[in-house]
Specification:
This is NAD(P)-dependent oxidoreductase. With 338 residues, the protein is α/β, with parallel strands linked by helices. The protein has 11 helices and 13 strands. The strands form 4 sheets. The chain has a 7-stranded parallel sheet, with helices on both faces. It has a two-stranded parallel ribbon with strand order 7-10. The two termini are 15 Å apart.
Length: 338
């Protein structure tokens, strides 16, 4: 797929590591980080499900020990983005790829002499069951029975425990709802579901969405990874401005030239989504349009980025209007709006 044309420079306040190792290096966020660090002059290596030797990426399963771990040796910074990001994955797969894999990456960072490991968690570590409006990083994480939520909570424990005992300095990132070129959950899938007339919103579309354009997220990650103040810390990174789900996904219906999105009361939307998920499971298919996703889009609370602003100097520079302009250009170029 085409890559975004504009790659902003590394913020000058963040020192650039000489060598960076990224898990999920060919993915949406991992690939964007890799491009950013290469533009800044760093040597970038990585691991993904398939190899890309021209980009220094080897193939490997990060939930298993292997030669990919030696590929991280000598890297100053290790960034762990690889994960199963799904509401449809099994408990076993989610644990293996989101929790056990975190331990394997920590092993590689420790043995390779890394000076920092950045671990990607999620704002969903706060749970989908509710949290205070403007929730801050000090609020207790909470498991809620969803495999993705629960394994993100557990992965944070694994990473911060390694930091506490001195294996490697760790920074945990909790991204908001990351959209932009190549985003599967918040760009590609919504467009596909809208085109197929299978997209609906609970809470009459008034659920809270916390967007962050991928380049804005990378700005924050570079700061958190490069500044000494980021070690041992957890940071929530989003635009810091919540919008309604109706407003956010309305950008995609506008791009497609269709009405919508369809907004329903939460009980009706959750029931319909649950039925869709049950039918898909009966057919042996996976779908993200299930009950868990509907509940997530009915959230009422927002996430504070005050800590990232205060400690890192994080300042989101790409608002939703500009982010969607860039996203639309990529969607059209990649053929998703045909």
């Amino acid at each position: 797929m085409p890559e975004p044309a504009v790659v902003p420079p590394v913020p000058p306040a963040a020192p650039v590591p000489q060598r960076v190792f990224i898990t999920g290096a060919l993915g949406f966020i991992g690939g964007t980080l890799a491009r950013r660090y290469r533009e800044a002059g760093a040597e970038v290596r990585g691991v993904d499900r398939v190899a890309a030797p021209e980009h220094g990426v080897v193939a490997g399963d990060v939930s298993e020990p292997g030669a990919w771990q030696q590929h991280a040796a000598g890297c100053d910074l290790v960034v762990h983005t690889a994960a199963v990001v799904s509401n449809a994955a099994s408990d076993e797969l989610s644990w293996r790829m989101n929790v056990l894999a975190t331990r394997r990456v920590l092993d590689a960072a420790r043995d390779g002499g890394a000076q920092r490991l950045v671990h990607f968690s999620s704002v969903r570590a706060f749970s989908d069951l509710g949290f205070p409006d403007g929730v801050e990083e000090s609020w207790p994480v909470r498991t809620d029975g969803n495999a993705y939520v629960d394994t993100k909570v557990a992965s944070e424990q694994v990473a911060l425990q390694a930091h506490a005992v001195g294996e490697v300095p760790v920074t945990v990132i909790r991204p908001g709802d990351v959209y932009g070129p190549r985003s599967r959950p918040w760009t590609i899938l919504p467009v596909e579901y809208i085109k197929a007339r299978r997209f609906l919103l609970p809470a009459m579309g008034r659920g809270v969405f916390s967007p962050v354009y991928v380049d804005t997220l990378v700005d924050g990650v570079v700061l958190a990874a490069g500044l000494p103040a980021g070690a041992g810390q957890v940071f929530t990174l989003s635009d810091g401005v919540a919008v309604s789900c109706r407003e956010f996904f309305g950008h995609y219906t506008r791009m497609l030239g269709v009405r919508g999105p369809l907004c329903l009361p939460t009980p009706v939307a959750v029931a319909l989504a649950g039925a869709v998920g049950a039918v898909a499971r009966a057919r042996g298919e996976e779908t993200e349009a299930g009950r868990a996703s509907a509940l997530y889009l009915a959230r009422r609370g927002t996430y504070s980025i005050a800590k990232a602003r205060r400690v890192l100097g994080y300042a989101p520079a790409i608002d939703l209007t500009e982010g969607m302009r860039r996203t639309e250009a990529w969607l059209r170029e990649a053929g998703h709006l045909d």
